[in-house]
Amino acid sequence: MARRLDFGGAPEAIQKPLPVHDGTLKSRMRVLGIRLAQSPPLALVVLLPTLVLLVELLGSITSPPVSVADFDSCSTRQCEMRVPKIIHQTYKTKTLPLDWEDTPRIWQEQHPGWQYKFWDDERNRAFIAEHYSWFLAQFDAYPNGIQRADAIRYFILYHYGGVYADMDIQPRRNIEPLLGDAEVVLPLTPNVGLTNAFMASAPRSDFMRHVTEQLIPYANRWYHVTRHWQIITSTGPTFIWKVASSYSGPSRILRVPASVWGKCVICASSCQDVPDAFFHHLHGDSWHNFDSWFFTYVLFCHKYTVTALGTALVAALLLRQHIQPWVLVNRTLLLYSAACFFILMVFFQG
To answer: Which of 166, 182, 239, 260 has CB atoms 3.0–4.6 Å from 197's, for a disulfide?
Structure first.
């Protein structure tokens, strides 16, 4: 006759009595180890929040922000700038939103002697049609305008070189010291990976050529299940992060820490200017939709809450026939797990 399994994972007929301790720390740890070994669900509930907490603590200790004074953008003593003095910005029309209308003027005031190029949707398509006709079909096929706005910046930087910046990024001073002598400059985000909100490149750089060639292969992937995920992985920040991470060509890529270019974590309720950082950041995310809000402000910004709820759901499903006695027996460990998640949500979450 088949034997029913209980919450500890062992058959009732051979279930061992729960171990007890004699009050000493060594005895308590031994009993805890036995309980975790006998109950995989319990191990999941206890070890997952512990590991997440340790990772966050280690990261906060070993990864201090890089100050502007400590950031070195030069690889040689001469430090001759390879990025040409051209500023590129794009928007769907020539009329900018009120919050951004001063951005072009501020860029030009902070960079006398630089050339400023503004690109709207009409000019972007004409540029692709004239110079990169092999990409025009894909350019037109993108279902979202922001994908075209992403793609055009890579072609412009490859063709002309210079600096690209989103309209919600305003320079606080001349950025030439930030560029150094790098062939390509990419900014690290305080969230995850790289972003394409600000970039710089020498003309005809091997890396930007490689990026443009990867756009078509990444245009339609099986994991493009939502609008937001499709955008960031086909042309946006996750795309450039993936391409840069796998790139092994000759271009020297300078990765600028978020603390140097002044970017806040996306979960912050407000973004104060980082002292001495190169940029002032306005409110952006003009292309965000409902699924963007869900991915960003629910899953990403509340990842510990989601993890806690998921862990509790898995444990409840596995232990549904014995949940009440299981909770009574392991209430101390459950309180420990709850305390770990509380610490994570209060101190490590924006």
So the answer is: 166
154: nearest Cα among 92, 230, 227, 236: 236
Helices and strands: H and E segment counts in the chain: 15, 8
The pLDDT tens digits of the residues spanning 280-327 come to 888 655 555 655 556 665 566 666 666 666 666 666 666 566 666 766
253 domain residue, yes or no: yes
**What span, in angstroms and rounded, lies between the C-alpha atoms of 262 and 106?**
17
Alpha helix stretches (DSSP H) within 194-302: 206-214, 227-234, 237-246, 258-261, 290-293
Residues 258, 114 share a domain? yes
Q: Is residue 80 part of a domain?
A: no
d(CA 40, CA 57): 25
Domain for residue 81, yes or no? no
Q: Could you tell me the residue range of the domain that residue 52 belongs to? A: 12-61+302-347
Q: Position of tokens 């320079």?
A: 171
Token pair of 90 as six digits: 């794009």
Which residue reads 């292969």 in tokens?
Answer: 217
Of the candidates 48, 12, 13, the residue with the CA atom closest to the CA atom of residue 333: 48
Whether 1 is covered by a domain: the verdict is no
For residues 308 and 280, state if they share a domain.
no
Residues 276 and 341 in one domain: no
- The mean pLDDT value for 176-183 works out to 94
Question: In this predicted model, what pLDDT tens digit does every residue of 211-222 receive, in sequence order?
Answer: 999 999 999 888
Contact 168, 282 (CB under 8 A): yes
Instruction: Please count the other Cβ atoms lying within 10 Å of the Cβ belonging to residue 10.
Output: 14
Judge if 51 and 180 occupy the same domain: no
pLDDT digit string, tens, across residues 43-73: 655 566 666 556 555 544 445 667 777 888 8
Q: Give 11's strand partners.
A: 5
Q: How many domains does the chain have?
A: 2
Two structure tokens written together for 295: 């991915």
